[in-house]
Amino acid sequence: MAVFFTLVLLAMVCPLVAFDMGQSTRCVTIPNQMKVCKDVGYTEMRLPNFLGHSNLEAEVVPRSEDWRPLLQTGCHPQAQAFLCSLIAPVCLDTFIQPCRSLCVAVRDSCAPVLACQGHPWPEALDCDRFPTEEDMCLFLPITYSSFIDLPKPACQNCPAVEEAPTMKTVLDAFCLHDFAVTAKIHRHRLPTGEPEFEIDGLVEFIRQGPLLPYDTRHLLQQWLLINLRCAGVLVRPGRSQLYVLTGSVQPDGTLALTNLFPWHKKDANIAVATRKWKHHRC
């Protein structure tokens, strides 16, 4: 998805913070293997970048991959624009940093997600180092909210996992919570050795509640990306595993998973509970 930048250009340009305007720079093509800044809206970047990286193959490309798990969560619509303006600054006649307000907006949305993944907000991205809108900088564009408020995934404590539950346990979980779905979750390893999780195939509703059919698979996928450490505890490596997931939508609009039942072929109680649910009275 292309990211379109809006620049605040004033006649009087103040020096940029934490960057030596006099140092020698060069323009290079953004390489294809730099996936996080693919389709960012321009094709050439300056080196060194604003994080002090000057070697494209040894520093810029591999370090950019560190941000991929965060960007995949969709924690802020301008997170890619902000990070790529630092990792791969656009090659113009002058240096363009992100505005402080853009940094604050992305930090406030993405720092909790980063913390959930086990990382603090980096000191190198301290928003005080960036210029205000009175200077030349990349600022936060005006956005318009959707008419439909969809449930959103958020960082949470890991849901309870119960192997071989009784039929009553499963039916009680269906009654107590807003929704219940079945989904196959696959865990595999990236070339870096880190685990990655994905929803494999369709998500099927047992109890739909406030969820929407076209959004639920993406919603659960985002939950896995945000709650990466939790997913590592819940999901075993290997083949795709079928699970029954129950959860609720909180008053603030965030989704919370509450129970996770691994559904093995031998678990007849889960199969019976899903059949009885159609006629079950809570």
From TrEMBL:
Disulfide feature: C103-C127
Q: Which residues form the NTR domain?
A: 158-282
Cleaved signal peptide residues = 1-18
CDD domains associated with the record: NTR_Sfrp1_like (cd03580)
What's one Pfam family the UniProt record gives for this protein?
Fz
- Select a single GO molecular function from the record's annotations and give it: Wnt-protein binding
Residue span(s) of domain FZ? 22-140
Main localisation, per the record?
Answer: secreted
Q: Which family does it belong to?
A: Belongs to the secreted frizzled-related protein (sFRP) family.
Q: Name the chain's protein.
A: Sizzled
Organism equals Labrus bergylta
